[in-house]
Amino acid sequence: MDPRRSHWESSSEDVTRPLLPLHDDDGAAGRRSCAALRSLLANKYLAVASGPVACALICGLVDLGGHRAARNMLGVLAWVFLWWITDAVPLAVASMAPLFLFPVFGISSSDAVAKAYMDDVISLVLGSFILALAIEHYNIHRRLALNITSLFCGDPVKPPLLLLGICGTTMFISMWIHNTPCTVMMMPVATGILQRFPRVDGASSSASSAADAREVQRFSKAVVLGVVYASAIGGMATLTGTGVNIILVGMWSTYFPEQPPITFSSWMSFGLPLALVLFVALWATLCVLYCSKNTGRALSAYLDRSHLRRELSLLGPMAFAEKMVLAVFGGLIVLWMTRSLTDDIPGWGSLFHGEVGDGTVTIMMATLLFIIPSGKNDGEKLMDWGKCRRLQWNIILLLGAGFAIADGFRASGLTDILSEGLGFLRGAPALAIAPVACVFSGVITEFTSDDATATLVLPLLAELGKSIGVHPLLLMVPGAVGAQLSYLLPTGSPGNVVGFSTGYISIKDMVIAGTPLKIVGVAALTILLPTLGSVVFGMDQKL
Questions:
Q1: Cβ-based neighbours of 255, under 8 Å, separated by 6 or more
Q2: For 164, which of 108, 174, 261, 435 is 20 to 30 Å away at the CA?
Q3: pLDDT digit string (tens) for 393-413?
Q4: How many domains does the chain have?
Q5: Axis-axis angle for helices 207-237, 159-174 (nearest 10)
Q6: Residue 424: which of 459, 452, 464, 455 has the closest Cα?
Q7: Does the global pTM surpass 0.70?
Q8: C-alpha pair distances (Å), 512 with each of 221, 226, 494, 501, 515
Q9: 367-398: per-residue pLDDT in tens?
């Protein structure tokens, strides 16, 4: 062999050998880059970084006329809000961020921000959650639902009455416990009824059976939507029904401590009529959209009153523990309603010179659950701390973060700056601004939680009310109510997610049924606030 040829071939091999591995290295590098990108997205590192980056950009680029604390507060608000809406970290962790961000950025001291996470309002929520766990543990909600549903079922089945029973039960329960656990408790009751019905599979043997299956499917949508919306509507009626009302009360006392507080009874005097109007609208909407003259006949083959009574009989007679939980709950409602009545009849709160709040009696009654025996085993109480492991600390911390942010808005001077920018509304009539505030809050709440919406919107509305010369509650109450009108998208509230996850409803169903409710809610608020609300909250008086 020619030595030159041999040398050329060996040289070619030497040259080509490293080229192939280089090509493989490029492919491996690309695969590693894709894997790194997937890992980056899966671990939400971009979402985690979005908060600090937004805060740094605001602190570095935004100029608020030399107001350093206000600029820092705006940056911290962007940080916390981005973590909330992107779910970069768990909700509870994001809600604790003000505990270290406020002192670091010079907004407020560590003691001042920590106090916002535990006050009378937070005590009210904490005690209510413990009572809700007791009700769920002893299946009291299920017994109540079956009793009322069997009462309204009818014989033969009357779908509008059955819807009225299911929605009415859900609304009543949601008035006394947070609407999210109410939805979680009531949805299995509703789906338990729906499980008797067949799913539409396209294999029906006749046209009539296919039509009946479609009627059943439409009624199933009505039941799930009814539970979701009735839970949200019931939460409007009382302070304990939803976190938004609690946030409103806390921010009102924070911004206007010299004014009379919003009590349980005063809010219920306004919130219950508003909730009843929305409930009637809900029932009418569901009946029009999902009930026809053939629905009752289609349901009769799968559901009657005897089925519900059979399920109720399986629960057995009401035990001593259930009666005691109901007694504690009933006593708490009486204490809530009678703490502050009228100027002529001050209520039992006057005996303690106004030092006792709604949270005080809620924790006191919740404590009784850990003292009263259950009557089952020796030494066993109605509740123990093991049963409280499912306490919704994320909601409690979220409320604390909302109050801390409200304090930060005021302490940093950010509310004064923002209200100055809204001065062009000074000459607008209050009756026109109130529905606008409700719609503004109602749009935001479709894309983030109602509690987060209230936390963001209410401080702005409080300062806006002062700057344009109207009673702040004329704007804060519409903002709070609008934040609860999250009826169109699953992202609006955890209750919407619970209903959407059942598979019975779609986003289209929520939009079709939720739009009329949203319109009725805004219209009812526009009428009730300047009439009934003016009397209840004393909004005809100057601050």
A1: 406, 410, 459, 462, 472
A2: 435
A3: 887 888 788 788 878 887 888
A4: 2
A5: 30
A6: 464
A7: no
A8: 12, 13, 19, 18, 6
A9: 999 999 998 888 899 999 998 888 888 878 88
Burial 109-139 (b: 16+ CB within 10 A, else e): eeeebbebbebbbbbbbbbbbbbbbbbbbbe
**DSSP letters for 388-452:** GTT--HHHHHHHHHHHHHHHHHHHHTHHHHHHHHTGGGTTS-HHHHHHHHHHHHHHHTTTS-HHH
Residue bearing tokens 């939805």: 183
Cβ-contact 117, 400 below 8 angstroms: yes
The model's pLDDT over 30-55, given as tens digits with 9 standing for 90+, comes to 566 566 556 655 667 888 999 999 99
Mark whether 65 and 200 lie in a shared domain: no
Residue type, 480: A
Q: What pLDDT band is residue 71 in, cutting at 50, 70 and 90?
A: very high
Of 83, 111, 139, the last residue of a domain is 111
| Residue 459: cis peptide before it, omega within 30 degrees of 0 | no
Same domain (yes/no): 286, 234: yes
The CA-based angle 522-526-528, given to 5 degrees, is 115
Whether 372 and 458 map to the same domain: the answer is: yes
* Domain extent at residue 462: 121-537
Task: Write the CB contacts of 327 (distance below 8 Å, at least 6 apart in sequence).
Answer: none
